[in-house]
Structures are given as structure tokens and as C-alpha cells.
Amino acid sequence: MLVSKDSMKNNNLVIGKIRTSFGVKGFVKIMNFSGEKDHFFELKEVVLQNGKIREKKKIEEVLPHGNNLVIRFEGIHTPEAAKKYINWEMWVSRENACALGEGEYYLADLYGSALVSTPEKGSKVYGRVKSVICECGTTDFLEVESIGKDLDAGGSEDEKDLTGKEGKKVFLVPFTNKFVGKVDTENKTIELLEEWIIP
């Protein structure tokens, strides 16, 4: 599930975003970042966040709507009141987020990870994950900021120019088995299998 960098500090996760108001009774339509729905029906309250503004809201009702969900929060009972929260994120504690299956990750845990080479290619660090893009059809993408250096994953001082070019670059890596190998959330490393994707 997609989350912002703040989740690494307070152990909370963003589980969705309010897309638009729905109907005349104050419901809002949700963009669900995990793809799973069951945990939404068990939520009692969430924190809505827009930048640095946070508001705790109790949930009155959750309804399925096709492949999406609509939610009504306490105190929001008109379309006009609901529209205030368009594009606000929905945050919950980690224990109230969707449970992980095998080979699944909270995208919050990928933020800041070093994109590294496989062991047979040495100890290269190509960059660090600055965000995860989850709105590109069926494939998620890691947005990686290159460091232009050949470092160990911890960022040692033994630096060598990797690209021969000055300045940082941002590039996308499909989060699929073809491009991504071992993901180590404890040590904050992600193996890149295909170097040619680096600009």
C-alpha cells in the first residue's frame, strides 16, 4: 500500500485517498491503495491528512460501490462538506492496515531503500527510493533518485562516479520480478536485476 515518508517516523500507514464526494448524504469515494477492502469495514476511525493538516474522523458507514468503496465520516453529511476533503489521505495505525501476505510489502517500508546491484555485480548502489507510483495500470513503479556514486548500501565514503555525469537523476523501476530481486525491508535494500534501465 502506498504511503508517504512520514509513516516511517510514526509507524502509521496511509491506506487510501479521498477521490471525490458521492451522492447527497456526505459520502466520499475512496482510492484504495492496497487493493483489499475487508479491513475498511472494520475501521472505527482514521486520520485524514492534507499536507501538515490532520483531522481525526470517526467512520459512520462504509459501503461497496462497484470495485470501489464509499465512506461517510461523522459530521460530514452534505456534498459541500465532503468536497473539502478531496485528495486528503486516510491514515491508520499499522495494526489496522491490511494484513500482508507472503511476498507483499507495505510501500512505506520501501521508502528510502537503497537500490543495489545483485551480489555477483559487486556492491553498487544506484540510488534510493523516493516514492512509489501506484496509478499506472497493473504495475507499480519505484521512483528512484540516482546518487551517481558506487557506494555500499550504508553510504560509505569510498565513492566512485558511476555514471560519469554530474547531478542526480530520477528514474522509474517497475516493481516486478523481471526488474526487482530480493527486497530486504529490515536492511532497507532492493536488488535491481536489469541495469540497462538506469538513464
Characterization of this structure:
The chain is mostly beta strands and 199 residues long. The protein folds into two domains: 7-96, RimM (Elongation Factor Tu (Ef-tu), domain 3, Beta Barrel); 107-197, Roll (SH3 type barrels). It has two helices and twelve strands, in the order H-E-E-E-E-E-H-E-E-E-E-E-E-E. The protein has helices spanning 7-10, 79-83, and strands spanning 12-22, 27-32, 45-50, 53-65, 68-73, 89-93, 114-116, 125-133, 141-146, 170-174, 180-184, 189-192. It has a six-stranded antiparallel beta barrel. A six-stranded mixed sheet has the order 10-9-8-7-12-11, with no helix packed on it. Strand 7 (114-116) and strand 8 form a beta hairpin. Residues 1-9 and 149-165 have low confidence and may be disordered.
Query: What is the end-to-end distance?
Result: 27 Å
> Which overall shape is indicated by the principal axes computed on the Cα atoms?
elongated
- The SSE order reads HEEEEEHEEEEEEE
Question: Strand tally, please?
Answer: 12
What oligomeric state best describes the polypeptide chains here?
A: single chain
Profile the largest sheet: 6 strands, antiparallel, barrel
Arrangement of strands in the largest sheet:
1-2-5-4-3-6
Name the average pLDDT: 82
Strand content: 35-45%
Return the CATH class of the largest domain. Answer: Mainly Beta
Q: If helices are DSSP runs of H or I spanning 4 or more residues, what is the number of helices?
A: 2
| Count of distinct structural domains | 2
Task: List unreliable stretches of 5+ residues.
Answer: 1-9, 149-165
CATH fold field value of the largest domain: SH3 type barrels
Helix content: under 10%
